[in-house]
Amino acid sequence: MATRRRVLGAGLSVVGAGLTGVSLLPVLNAREAGAVPAPGGQAAAAAERFAVPMPIVPVLKPVSTADGTDTYEMTMRSQTKEILPGLRTELRTFNGQFPGPTIKARRNRPVVIRQRNELDVGVSVHLHGASVPPEDDGGPMEVIAPGAERVYTYPNKQPHAGLWYHDHAHHTESESVYRGLHGAYLLTDDEEEALPLPKGEYDVLVSIRDAHFDTANGTLQYQMGDRSRTTLLVNGAPYPYFQVAARSYRLRLANHSNQRFLELRLEDDGEMTQIASDGGLLPRPHTTKAVYLTAGERADVVVDFSRYPVGTKLVLKNTGFAAVDDVSQVMRFDVVRTAEDDSSVPNVLRKLPPLPEPTAERTVVLRMDEDGRPDPKAYIDDKVYDHARVDAHIRAGASEVWTVTNANTKVPHNFHMHLVQFRVLERGGAAPGLEEAGLKDTVRLMPGETVKLQATFDAYQGEYVYHCHMLDHSAMGMMATMKIG
């Protein structure tokens, strides 16, 4: 019987030259499948392991808190930073930071962000996973031109969730996000804060993504479908170490890669307790040894480092989806001290309301050219994205069941809906795993796989997109428009 790991690595033994269907495969388990780097790429990671500390991403302070609204100002601009030792890398940034600063928001307290674009490319800032009016969604055609600015208002009426913001300007979103236009947006509420989970300095964002550097000058190389992104960055630093106390930590794991799939586990195969996914806390904690994250997915885990003696050095590994040995290690936890710990993980984390009776059902088919043609395209329901076309008309207040299928035989995808968090009902005809028991906004689809989900459209009316969140695929056209109302 084929193992799950081998199934995930299937079909990746050849790498095409240039932009082909095969080169646009995500980097999964190519080491096992015998894959090689793309022509002209760097086979090795560009940085020494565990030589730099993991940065703590700064939390942005509002410029105003008047009238119950937190107001922020951000400027998107080019910035050079030292990522590889001794080399400077030019990035596209929010406020000159890489990744962008973290925004901490609270349910029912609006956030207003004035975004000014000082880059030489157009951008559209999307708050991924958020329920917002269409004019504030950051749609693919709502572009802020160079030198212009736009104000986004986020009502924050939805429950707690670990969201993130990134560029969404069509055709250029893939490159801009890759070059640095992404950051975390952590929305909390009374329900979450009342739980005795690790807090403060023991609640830590771990933003993971890959990169391909020119090791001669530090330039961040970009090419659609590049399979040579063999340097992993955590909070913007290559393969860092993080000093922890011998106590429990909440680690907010986020895959901010364009394409790479991750399977994260501790080096000793120790247990982690998953407590949240894209849309916030799970109903119950899920004890696991591995966390699977496709591009854009998030998962919060609690790791109890008190089971390790001070002096332990513990690597966080990327196993099932590791392309080559260069990315089989992500970062290292160094247990350096003892500490008091009054945190705990309750047996019940939240109660999700029962799903309403579905009012409609529809099917969605994801597919891209995977036959090696020089100019592949990507489709939803055999159509390339056209911003002037509405692909799904949805009644306001409807609760729909969507059956989403990956029609490819080699290429995995994932599926993201704007505006709504959804519930996964089935995966391959069976009940989803415990890790998918909560609210989701992005879900994986391996070749030939079908996922059934239910979403309720009772918040805002207007046009929103749904798409593959492997950004190279959406930039090629794997995106469609739904109109609610």
TrEMBL record:
Pfam families: Cu-oxidase (PF00394), Cu-oxidase_2 (PF07731), Cu-oxidase_3 (PF07732). Transmembrane segments: none annotated. InterPro entries: Cu-oxidase-like_N (IPR011707), Cu-oxidase_2nd (IPR001117), Cu-oxidase_C (IPR011706), Cu-oxidase_fam (IPR045087), Cu_oxidase_Cu_BS (IPR002355), Cupredoxin (IPR008972), TAT_signal (IPR006311). Its EC number is 1.16.3.4. Residues 80-190, 236-310, 366-483 form the Plastocyanin-like domain. It catalyses: 4 Cu(+) + O2 + 4 H(+) = 4 Cu(2+) + 2 H2O. Keywords: Metal-binding, Oxidoreductase. It is an enzyme of class 1 (oxidoreductase). PROSITE patterns: MULTICOPPER_OXIDASE2, TAT. Belongs to the multicopper oxidase family. Monomer. This is Multicopper oxidase CueO.
